[in-house]
Design goal:
By secondary structure, this protein is an alpha+beta fold. Helices cover 32% and strands 28% of the residues.
Length: 167
């Protein structure tokens, strides 16, 4: 029996999800605590760091909020998010860089308090660095996502967003 490439991708996604879930749940690594290190307690984003997803809340021109659950990575008291170049959130950030972020699950269910921040679309020179950080954090699941994006052309049309805390 020969499988079509779409079926192979689905199988790889299911296996990748199972492996990713076991890593996040601490089953594979034997991790017992998901708390960030103590030195991060001064970080305004410290409450987000033990989560896999954040809701990136942007504003339409009308002032209405739009929440989108996204993967994120933390570096130097900044958060980074990957998105499509033509995504609505990119257009809304260009129009109004003020955003709110909150921890959430994959479906966007709120899991903590909101934090107000500023977002900016990164130049292409920073894309490789941020993509590598996301690969390190999300491992096999991120690589599976990249594989699907490769086949549908999404790799070429990505943008990365930098989020900084506002005082």
């Amino acid at each position: 029996m020969r499988l079509a490439w779409q079926e192979v991708l689905i199988i790889l996604l299911v296996v990748g999800f199972a492996i990713g879930f076991s890593f996040r749940a601490g089953i594979v690594r034997g991790r017992t605590s998901r708390r960030p290190p103590k030195e991060l307690s001064m970080n305004p984003f410290a409450a987000l760091l033990s989560h896999q997803y954040i809701n990136l809340i942007t504003y339409r021109k009308s002032g209405e909020t739009v929440a989108t659950p996204v993967w994120f990575v933390h570096e130097n008291q900044r958060l980074y998010v990957m998105t499509g170049r033509n995504a609505g959130k990119v257009k809304r950030i260009r129009n109004n860089p003020t955003v709110q972020i909150e921890p959430c699950d994959a479906r966007g269910t709120r899991l903590g308090n909101r934090v107000t921040a500023q977002a900016r679309i990164l130049d292409a020179t920073d894309h490789a660095r941020v993509n590598q950080l996301l690969n390190q954090k999300y491992g096999l699941m991120k690589r599976m996502f990249d594989l699907m994006a490769f086949f549908n052309g999404g790799i070429k049309s990505r943008d990365f967003v930098e989020i900084t805390h506002t005082s």
